[in-house]
Amino acid sequence: MKNIKRYEVYRTILAIAIALLLGYLLIFFTSMPKGDMPLGEKLKEAFQAANKAFKVFLTSPLVKERRGKVLFNLRGFIQWMNESVPIIITGLAVSLVFTAKQFNIGAEGQLFIGAAVASFAAIYFPAIPIIHPIVVILLASLTGAAWASVPAIMKSKLNASELVTSLMMNYVALYMGLFIIKVFLRDPNAGQLVSLPYKETSMLFLINSRYRWHIGIIIALVMSFLLWFIVKRTTWGYKVRLIGNNKNFAYYSGINTSRTIFQVQVVSGAIAGMAGIIELIGYHGRFLWLFSPGYGWDGIIIATLARNNPLFVPIAALFLSYIRVGAKTMGRYTNIPPEIVSILQATIILLVTAEAFLSRLRQKAIEKEAKANEPNNVAVAGGDVE
């Protein structure tokens, strides 16, 4: 088992390295100057421009250069932390359903409708410090759970595909959420479709008020540990993992698989429902999405990179948000489009999910572990014979 886990780590690192190499090559060819120049001069200029852009891409979330000095980039660091929060939470939600081998991809709709409904509490609930943001987050969580219960019921009672039902529910959530904001919560003084401002007491505590670094990252990390504990250290979590490994075996072992699958999807919806509103009450201060923010789809990427392990979800989310912040900064200071990060994401996911990628190395890891355990197995067999 240790050799196989080590193989998965190596495979993920190699996939990231290949993606970064591809990114560098794309930057290099994008930086190639046009016009009548000797090929050697073009290559030299492209090489220098690519090195400069790639350096900004890799380092800008942490450091910046000013007047020849290298300084800590507090603004970039806070942007990195804040952008990782919603995708950590959606990654946790998706990893839970994927652990049970349920391909529910409704996190995008759950966070959107959860944020829209919870905006009522953020605007109209009494201004009680500390209690107010808790009520807002709980309402978003309950809304996400209620929204997830629809495909969950259809799966457990009618055996309908949760992939199809959750996907369609995303579109319903989008337009229903926009309807709620437009009809009930719209700010008439704003120049676009946004909600009324949230009450100050509904906002999360700020670690840094200048760049609005909120405590969402702490909430996300605590949730990661709690979900890991539930999945790995509780009876219910064992049932979820057993269903994911072999649903029929779990059923004939006496586990009520339909009920557990329903619970998994509802709990996942409750987690996903929190992601959107934490982003809004932490940073923006009002509902301002005119379309889906995409955090639910990012959650699928994060869960895949983390191998559905809640403890690895923050690491994967921090990596993804890091390269995104780096790409945005690179786009501001160079002529390289920040959309390059989408190519990197796609390359990493393709290599990580491709079973044939480094399959020979995996086979060697299995054989090595089997040979290492062979003396123990022989000893146990010999003891049984005696």
Automatic annotation (TrEMBL):
Pfam families from the entry?
BPD_transp_2
From the record, give the transmembrane residue ranges: 12-32, 77-99, 111-128, 134-154, 166-185, 211-231, 261-281, 311-327
Superkingdom to which the source organism belongs: Bacteria
One Gene Ontology term, aspect cellular component: plasma membrane
Q: Which residues form the signal peptide?
A: none
GO terms for molecular function, please? transmembrane transporter activity
Q: How does it sit in the membrane?
A: Multi-pass membrane protein
Where in the cell? Answer: Cell membrane
Keywords, A to Z, come to: Cell membrane, Membrane, Transmembrane, Transmembrane helix
Designated name of the protein: Inner-membrane translocator
